Amino acid sequence: MSQYFSPFVLPFCAAVLVLLGICIWKYVRWYKHFDRLQKAIFLKNLISWKFIPALWEAFREGILHVRISRKNLVLGYMHRSIALGWFLLIVVGAIESHMAPTESHPFWMGIFFRYFVHDTPSPGISMFFANLMDFLLLYVLSGITLAYLKKVYSRIVGMKKVTKHVIFDQFAKFSLWAIFPLRLLSESLSANLYHNGGFLTQSVGDLFSSSFASTFELLSWTCYSFSLAIFFVALPFSRYMHIFTEIVLIFFRHLGLKERTAKTGFTMYELSACSRCGICIDNCPLNKQLAIPNVQSVYFLRDLRYKRVKPEIADNCLLCARCSSDCPVNIDLMSIRQQARHKQELDTQHNYQYLDNIQPFNAIGRVGYFAGCMSHLTPAIPEAMVAIFEAAGQKYWYMDEDKTICCGRPLMQQGYLNQAGELRRKNIEMIKKSKIQFLITSCPICYQSFKKEYKLPVPVIHHTEYIAGLLQSGKIKVRKDDLKTVYHDPCELGRGCNIYKEPRQILKKTTQLVKAKSEKEDSLCCGYNLGNTLINNEQQKKIRDAAFKNLMHKKPDVIATACPMCKKAFKHSMDFPIRDIAEIVKDNLIKK
Amino acid sequence: MKKIAIIGAGPAGIEAASILAAHNFEVTLFEKSSTPLSNILDKAFLFPSSVAAADLVDELNAKLLHDNIQLICEKEIVNIKETNDECKLFDKDGKTYFASKVLITTGYTIFDAHRKEELGYGIYKGVISSLDLEKMIRHKQIKNSIDELPQRITFLQCVGSRDEKSGNNYCSKICCVTAVKQAIEARKLLPQAEIYIFYMDLRMWGQTFEELYRQSQEEYDIRYIRGRISEASATFDGKVQIKSEDTLIGQPLKMTTDLLVLMCGMEPSPGTKTLAENCQIAGDYHFIQTIDPHLHDNETAQTGIYVAGSAKRPMSIRDTLSDAAAAAMQIMSDCQ
User: Fold this and answer.
1) Chain A residue closest to B270 (CA)?
2) CA–CA separation, A49 vs A499, rounded Å?
3) Do B260 and B132 share a structural domain?
4) How many inter-chain contacts (A to B, CB under 8 Å) are there?
5) pLDDT of B130 strictly over 70
6) In this structure, how many other beta carbons lie within 10 angstroms of the beta carbon of residue B251?
7) Residue A1 has pLDDT above 50, yes or no
8) Which of A266, B53, B189, B306 has its CA 20 to 30 A from that of A310?
9) Are B115 and A567 in contact (CB < 8 Å)?
10) B-chain residues within 8 Å CB-CB of A537?
11) Contact (CB, 8 A) for A211 and A220
């Protein structure tokens, strides 16, 4: 050991132990906070073939950063060069040190190789490694340079706003940024003295005088070791915890784990998997249209992780899921936001006794139709649905025609879980006793609730899916007219439930469908989402106007949508025609 | 002889034209539609004295016969530019006209109740606007959706005014008393029907309005409920079911009615909006802005361009007529 030891390796070695210790301690503690179901799923699926796709995804996302590259190539390159470059430096460094003909191979040797090993019996191989390692170092340094440039001018990586980091994150970031220039300096100084450098380190080293090199070599390596040590110790407490946690999270997801209605240990993994890249900031309507700077998911998750989240930040979100579709780590941002909203004290003060007076209906052989509270405020939609049922000869039960029970989702979104549970219980009872074949809803909010928050014995479909089915099977026939329509994707239906295809199929069969500027996953929220109760009418209108502008890109005659909330948003204080897809289909029906 | 252009042949335009004509000005009156006074022509009776709207229309039309007034119908002026003490008017087809002063009297339009879809206008036959009811009263025939005499009529105040959601935070001023007037007229035609008015608060600002309101309760048995109607739906027999809350007793209520009359507020007319924008004199809610609400309430920020009537804010016909006279006086004194 003595030959390959110098006191400067001590900070590095100690930090590695500290890092491993803290990470394991944290991961075990978080695992303990899994709820029973999560633990059961984890243990059941632990040993299975699911590891293979998980490994592949971990490599793609943890190392190659494919999803970020899809957002922006330069930003992807920056992340990939640092992650892949550093990963390969470690791997190739380990191989190099193991292939070196030395008596012992202590684990730090790969990191400080050029300081300890000066000449080898086969110069060809050592030159190959020296050049390869130099190339990798250059690759990482190019990423670090981009990171510097991003700090000065973020638009080169396609970002208008970048995250405002807390001091501790800044500290960790600067220690990370110091590592690779110091490594370059140290290896160059050693190359000057021992001529063991590659194309980069040797040419940089030759710039120095040998007296300078021999004076500063040890100091430089010591600084390098300290910068590594500082970064490793800071890592578990800073945003860089995402490096390991993201990979763990990918495995967990492949094992079938997901967020629950309350915060669990899984949430802790998700919080630490956020790299605070800030990609979620630019497209957040609260940032883009209202210039509210501190409520975006990146800040919310950070505050939640450091246990200092304020209710006004948790509540100030439209739940439009625009950030979820942008998030390169695929964190379940909407669920975490709703967990943090739970209003425990207020949640017990309710009286739902009137629910007992609502009687179930025997609807064997029929389909159920649930218009939803919002559709009752846009009566043209249920009217159109009733006309379509009649045209298709469909026997139906209009479940909430007279006595409306809310699906409970707006309460869920605001953190009233018990109250939502009361309503859910009654709706489930009604649906079970009715014996309907399947349930059709007109409101994407109800649809998402029935689909995800209920456990119903019957399938649930949105009316766009139902109408698309009717058109496909020929049960109703429509004519196509010359009206130019554009489709506004409702957040709850699109990003919420992944329904993009059916509405467009219907509109292509009935009208001339044109494209919006941004659509599908990138569509803009109308601003009237029930998720946010803190913004006022004027602010809602600003968000709505941006969505409107986005739809007007190809100068359509009509806006078509599939959500009563969105319809109301565009109808308020606007004269532009806006119609639900059901209304368009009803007007274009060809009578048999 | 100085030439004056007036845009919009409503009560304000005609009144101002006749005053200016009498003082030897040469007036050109532009009207977008095919006849003057089209807004008043829809009305049956005018508050407060229940004079027939047709009488006022006749008197105003008579004023148009002056030799100094030239009426050009079906001509929409879309822009005005002021150069060298002269105003150049542009119509829709790009033709130009010259005048030394321009008076804008392009007026209002009623709020399109389709925009409040929860109230079912255009979806249920039993839901009508105040204008629709006025037409029924003019023909002395109030019918429900299945052409029978209605048993119950319900008025809803403040549709599209004092409403943040529709973007109109202002009070339209005339709807309260219009509902009282229409309810009395409806009572005269339907002695047996129940008549309700849902209101937020009743603004009886004219000297005689309060008395009219009292009479409507004591002599005409009109019932008032404080509360807004949140949604309307159809019943199987063609009636309208409404959901509301009586906020004086704090009880939610549901009732059916044959007719739901929406008292639609006033918005700037499309012509007002166009001119306000093109001449850069738009104020709140796209009405036309005057320089000062007290002493310069007919002048705009553009020299040579004046405004009168409901193009600048919601106004009754009486106020419109006196405002037009004031505008005419202002133009005369500025021309000297």
Assistant:
1) A575
2) 30
3) yes
4) 40
5) yes
6) 10
7) no
8) A266
9) no
10) 164-165
11) no
- pTM for this one? 0.87
Q: Which of A376, A378, A573 sits opposite B167 (nearest CB)?
A: A573
- What's the half-sphere exposure (Cβ side, CA atoms, 13 Å) at A280? 30
As a whole number of angstroms, the distance between CA A44 and CA A40 comes to: 6
> What's the structural domain count of chain B?
2
Whether B280 and B261 map to the same domain: the answer is no
Token pair of B81 as six digits? 């530019």
Q: Does residue B33 share a domain with residue B132?
A: no
Query: Which neighbouring-strand residues pair with A368?
Result: A397, A439
Q: Which residue has the tokens 């392009």?
A: B106
Three-class DSSP category at B132: helix
Host domain of residue B98:
3-107+269-334
Which ipTM value was assigned to this complex?
Answer: 0.84
pLDDT digits (tens, 9 = 90+) for A89-118: 999 999 988 887 777 778 888 888 888 888
Residues 61-120 of B with CB under 8 A from A: 112, 115, 117-118, 120
Mean pLDDT of B119-129: 94
Q: Give the confidence band of A463 by pLDDT, cuts at 50, 70, 90.
A: very high
Give the three-class secondary structure for B85: coil
Do A478-587 and A353-467 fall under one CATH topology?
yes
In a shared domain, residues B157 and B253: yes
- Predicted pLDDT at A522: 92
> Which class for B276: exposed (0-12), middle (13-18), buried (19 or more C-beta within 10 A)?
buried
The candidate with the shortest Cα–Cα distance to A460, out of A564, A368, A335, is A368
Regarding whether B308 and B186 lie in a shared domain, the answer is: no
Chain A residues near residue B164 by CB distance under 8 angstroms: 537
- The verdict on a CB contact (< 8 Å) between B165 and A378 is no
Residues of B in contact with A378 (CB under 8 A): 117-118
Task: Please indicate, yes or no, whether residues B274 and B242 belong to a single structural domain of this protein.
Answer: no
Confidence of residue A2 (pLDDT cuts 50, 70, 90): low
- Write out chain A residues lying below 8 Å of B117, CB-based: 377-380, 567-568, 571
DSSP state of B107: -
pLDDT of residue B152: 96
A247 with A241: CB under 8 angstroms? no
Query: According to the CATH classification, is domain A353-467 in 3.40.50.1860?
Result: yes
Looking at the structure, tell me whether residues B192 and B297 fall in a common domain: no
- The answer on B71 and B29 residing in a single domain is yes
Task: Supply the CATH classification number for the domain A478-587.
Answer: 3.40.50
Domain ranges, ordered by start, for chain A? 49-239, 353-467, 478-587
